[in-house]
Each structure stands twice: as structure tokens, then as C-alpha cells.
Amino acid sequence: MPSNNPNALIDPDDTLPSVKEPRLWSDNGWTARIIKNEDDDGWAVEMLKDGERESALVGPWTMGRDKKNPKPLDVSAFNTLVKTASEVLRRHEQQLHAMLHKHLVVSTATARWDVTLDIVADEYEPHALLAAHDEGGGQVAQVRVPANFKLTPASATAWIEAGFSKPG
């Protein structure tokens, strides 16, 4: 039985009821909605993940037999849309991760180093953390640098050879 306490945690097994209408399907954490295409006389489908405000996917939708109304959603189309929208989100997350986390390996006269740059996209104080790990994986140094710091083999080597002092 659901709690009347607004501060209660949501039970992950407590899912929203599924909806299976010709222009609106909602199930397994996703909602597909057929909408009028603003650009032409056709139709589009919008995929929205539960709890998100922005669509994960918007694409063209097939016209029905009357060439006026949209083809109704069905289980097969919905499952395909969920798979496609999930892949779009996964690729977006991978791209964001790649933008915010840089990694390279440099060798100096004394050792081989894994150097990472993790950008902290803070609204008020964006910055990055530059870190060096030895061959055993242990972190040897970490310094805070500007978010626009360019991690290159040359900048990493210079930082290591300067004794891991904060780059100027």
C-alpha cells in the first residue's frame, strides 16, 4: 500500500500503471506519444523516460491507411522505440563521459604514468582534477586545475617532471 508520507522513499517495484492507447503507450519506465509534426502534415513519435523532462527521442511516425491519421502504436513498435531511445541515451552518456574524463599514459625517464583529467562541471566554480597514477595503479598526486586545462602528453610530462606542482 502506498505511503501518504511525501518524504517516503519510492519503492522501485511500485511502477506506474501501463497505458496502451493508439497514440499513447506507457510501460516499463517509458512513454511513447504520437504527436502532430509541426514541420509538415505528418506525425511524429516522442519517447520520454519516466522522471525526465526532455524527450530521449523524437522521430517521424508512419501514416495510417487513411493517409490522414497516424498508424496506432502496438507492442512491437513500442518495444523497438524503447530499444532505440535507450541506445540514444546510452550514447549520450558515453559522449558526456568522454568530454568530462580524459586519460592518457606517458612515460618519463623514470616511470610510466597514467594521467587523468576529470572536469567538474559546477555551475559556479567549474574546475578539473588532474591526477597521476603509478604503474601499480596508486594515485601519486592530484591537483585542481582550470576546467579548460588541456591534457596532452606534453602537458602531462611537464607536470610530472615539475614534481607534480600545480601547473601555472
Protein model, in words:
This protein has 168 residues and is α+β, with helices and mostly antiparallel strands. It folds into two domains: 19-98; 108-161. The chain is 21% helix and 34% strand. The chain has helices at 75-100, 153-161, and strands at 19-21, 24-27, 30-36, 43-49, 57-61, 101-107, 112-120, 127-133, 139-146. A hairpin with a 6-residue loop joins strand 7 and strand 8 (127-133).
Entry keywords:
168 residues; alpha+beta; 2 domains; five-stranded antiparallel beta sheet; four-stranded antiparallel beta sheet; disordered N terminus
General form: elongated
**First and last CA, distance:** 59 Å
Total helical elements? 2
Total domains: 2
Mean pLDDT: 89
Q: Please give the oligomerization state of what you see.
A: single chain
Structural class: alpha+beta
Strand order of the largest sheet: 1-2-3-4-5
Number of strands: 9
Radius of gyration: 25 Å
Our estimate of the beta-strand percent is 25-35%
Which spans of ≥5 residues are poorly predicted at pLDDT below 50? 1-13
In helices, the fraction of residues equals 10-25%
Tell me about the largest β-sheet.
Answer: 5 strands, antiparallel
> What sequence of helices (H) and strands (E) makes up the elements?
EEEEEHEEEEH
